[in-house]
Design goal:
Number of helices: 7
Order of helices and strands: EHEHHEHEHEEEEHH
Helix content: 25-40%
Bound molecules: flavin mononucleotide
Number of strands: 8
Structural class: alpha/beta
Strand content: 15-25%
CATH topology: Rossmann fold
CATH class: Alpha Beta
Distance between the termini: 26 Å
Number of domains: 1
Largest sheet: 6 strands, parallel
Radius of gyration: 16 Å
CATH architecture: 3-Layer(aba) Sandwich
CATH superfamily: Flavodoxin domain
Shape: globular
Amino acid sequence: MTRILAIAGSPSHPSRTYGILEYATKLLQQEGLDIDIISVRDLPAEDLIFGRYDSPALIQPKALLEKADGVIIATPIYKAAYTGVLKAFLDLLPQKSLTGKVVLPIATGGTIAHLLAIEYALKPILSELGARHILATVYAVDKQIQRQADDSIQLDEELEQRLQDVLKEFVKAVKPSAVVSPELAHAN
Ligand SMILES: Cc1cc2nc3c(=O)[nH]c(=O)nc-3n(C[C@H](O)[C@H](O)[C@H](O)COP(=O)(O)O)c2cc1C
């Protein structure tokens, strides 16, 4: 079984980035992938702030990460970078936790102006954690993501297409023998 861990880096709820991960999860499950989502806002704040590497709350996320073949990291842009709470979490991971894993970064921002934030801010950290296979970032602006009354999200057509394209690449990278299903295959 090919396993994926999706990490949601927003301190907010409801969250657009979390909504995108839920959308991605549905598509990837259809491809037969086994996916878990963790949200850094669910971890004990004190463990994150005080840098408690031995926090019992980290045992499960670390185990999921170790088993994962692919990792999706989704963050809102805060002050032209990823969020502080995501960094606090990444700081607690063992060295080289991302070695051998395919990594897909996803970011949402209020403005397109910070499109490159993931390239200059997040990617060096992913690289420090051992990631060598990092797919092209999916960056979305808020107006492309409409929140629904039930806290789910509706993506605009352009974003949906872009996300499907990159998820197709992600599936091929984590599961090279996969025959991509028509749902994703039509995303050309
Ligand atoms: C404290 C804070 C700082 C932000 N800074 C930026 C920023 O520098 N650039 C930007 O494009 N959007 C910025 N935003 C907007 C968020 O990135 C955007 O609304 C994002 O979609 C929120 O994602 P979420 O719903 O998953 O939390 C900021 C939002 C907050 C709350």
